[in-house]
Amino acid sequence: MSFSENLYYLRKRDKITQEELADRLGVTRQSVSKWETGEASPETEKLILICDLFGVSLDEIVRTDLTAGALREKPEEENAEECGREFIAKTNRFAAWVAFGVFFILLGVSVCLLLCGISEYLDGSSARLASVMSGVTVVLFVAVSVFLFIFSGMEYDRFRKEHPVMQKVYGDAERKAFAKKFATAMACLVSAILLDTVFLVVFSSLIDAEIIAVNNQDAAYCFVTAVFLCLLSFIVGGLVYFGILRTKYDISEYNRQNGKGDASDESGNKRKKWSDALCGSIMLVATGVFLLIGFVWHLWHPGWVVFPIGGILCAIVNTVLGTKD
């Protein structure tokens, strides 16, 4: 009886996961996995801690058969199951944090416009304070978003480096069920974007034509655009969330992105990375231009046009650099 088999048995007996055991011993989960598969052995210090943790002697865990004939699964199979569960949890968390990051950016701009509209009804120091607060609000919301992007991205990237190859974690029935749910969500969210745009265009036109009587048109434009962006923040956040969740059900794409797929997919992966980088840069520039012309020239109302233009440019980039799926 080897140490690896005894360790696996003791951990299962006490219902401790590999991650929990790793935390107690101050090592990584991968180290525990290697100990149980016999790929590596713990240092003497860690071995003594393991004995104390499970209440066995050093001689028992190394030389004695502690399983006493108990039926056991193969460590490799359990490792694959645990890795699959961890992959699902990491992807769910990553999708939620990135979606919240996108949501906070758009919501920050929405609150900024709301404060700008309020400042139109104020005078003197109150108006200046509202203007300053509008800028501070954008910075704070963007700071929260950047934190979420960096933290979640680094955590997810670390997991992908530790597990570059994944086995299927969902069956065909589960993938088909999600595909149906995904199609419904995309249809609803894209339709919501169109309705939100119609809301903005219609109310802006009514204000321009003075059909809706307002005391201050600039403030009214700010309020309407703020509502538009607030609704858009929920919609885009939903699109991002479902888009990332989809990766859980496409393991072959996950493996290809980690460079573990077929060689024929390498050029497609490179084009996709360039496409994602360019689209991200385009939308960042669009946001910067929108804020610039808004704060400097106070053209918040026509300034929103940069976002659909950015979307069109991203569509062109994806068409030119698109990969075959």
Q: Using only CA atoms, what is the Rg?
A: 27 Å
Task: Outline the low-pLDDT stretches.
Answer: 261-265
Q: Span between N and C termini?
A: 49 Å
**Structural class designation:** mainly alpha
Specify the number of helices.
13
The percent of residues in helical segments reads: over 70%
Mean pLDDT score: 79
Percent strand? under 5%
Please describe the biggest sheet, giving its number of strands, its sense, and whether it closes into a barrel. none
Q: Which H/E pattern describes the elements? A: HHHHHHHHHHHHH
The counted number of beta strands is 0
Global geometry? elongated
Give a short summary of the structure.
78% of the residues lie in helices and 0% in strands. The protein has 325 residues and is mainly α.
Describe this entry's structure for a reader.
The chain has 325 residues and is mainly alpha-helical. Helix content is 78%, strand content 0%. The protein has 13 helices and no strands. Helix 8 packs antiparallel against helix 9 (217-245). The longest helix has 45 residues, at 75-119. The radius of gyration is 27 Å and the shape is elongated. The model is unreliable at 261-265 (pLDDT under 50).
Summarize the helices and strands and which ones pair or pack.
Blueprint: H1 3-13, H2 18-25, H3 29-37, H4 44-54, H5 58-63, H6 75-119, H7 124-162, H8 172-208, H9 217-245, H10 251-257, H11 266-297, H12 300-303, H13 306-321
Helix pairs in contact: 2-3, 6-7, 6-9, 8-9, 11-13
List keywords for this structure.
325 residues, mainly alpha, elongated
